[in-house]
Write the structure tokens for this entry.
Amino acid sequence: MCPDVEILSSFYDDELEDSQKQVVKTHVDSCPHCQKKMAELGLISATINAEEEPDFQMAQVNTWNKIMDIIDREEQKVPRVNFWQRRFQISFPAAAALVAAFIVVLSLSVVSFYMGKHTTSNPATPEMSITDASDTLFNDENLFDSKAIEFDIPAINTFIHAGEPLLIKEVDFRSRNGK
Amino acid sequence: MDDKAKKDFFEKIYKEIFPIVIKVSYRITKNLDAAQDVCQEAFIKLYHRVDTFPEVEDAKFWLIRVVKNLSFNYLEHEKVKNRAFDKIKHMPSFSDDTGEKQLLKKDAVEKVNQALEQLPENLKAPLILREFGGMNYKEIGTALGISESNVKIRIFRAREALGKLLPVGEVYVP
């Protein structure tokens, strides 16, 4: 009985164990069908290998040179250092000036901080807000008292108030009349 | 490993393995420039991790796997690129043969190329490593990360498929 073609393929590649190899060899030597199969395997292999190959030696040299170029460039490249990891040099006068400027700015800010704190904490400072004003406007009982708001009515007919703030107009009128 | 030892070991690997991987890559890509680019990329990757390989053999299996993958990636990329066009095959010229002999040889090689191209990657890779890499089943299995019996089956199936695609009786063999 003929061996499977899979075994013949392994036999062709010399991949069978010695004991199996001997059995298959003995059979193939006496079997025309298996000899034909072996010839086909050889033909496939020969045809695959029949194509002319390019110059691989030249390719080896060229590729080696390219690889060495790339590796050399990589190794010469300075590794990238982050800004906060960089070292820098500064001259002594410049360093001294920087320190002095820093101290001045610091002391000024400390002084202004304390002064600002003193001013805002002064209880005598009147605090005004829109809410306060509206409260006064609508809740004050003296709002419509004639003593609280006084207007001097102009005494001449030529006075035109349209388009001008009332209070300014009143002041102008007073000054013109010498009051 | 200091720099000098690293470079020496790398050069040793290159000299031993390049002739194998360039053949394998060329047979997959069918383009020498592409094969060179693939090998260059693989060896630069190897250089960065050459310390991790104790022996040349270890690097060899790793390299073959990387070259195989890069070559098939290239092929896939080219297929997508050329899908809209009729692919023009650049066959090598046979300056030493003339007439009918040249035609028969060219025809045979063309048929092999066409047949090989139609093979799926899982069958083509072991066959190429066997035929052009000169590797045995065990080495192919290590390089591709598959068992030896799996290699045996795939090579057999690749040959069977080629035998069907290739009219063996009609092909001229020099």
Remarks:
- Helices of chain A lie at 5-12, 18-30, 32-48, 56-76, 92-120, 130-139, 166-177.
- The interface with chain B takes residues 5-6, 9-10, 13, 15, 40-41, 43-54, 56, 59-60, 62-64, 66-67, 70-71 of chain A (CB under 8 Å).
- Residues 40 and 67 of chain A are 42 Å apart (CA to CA).
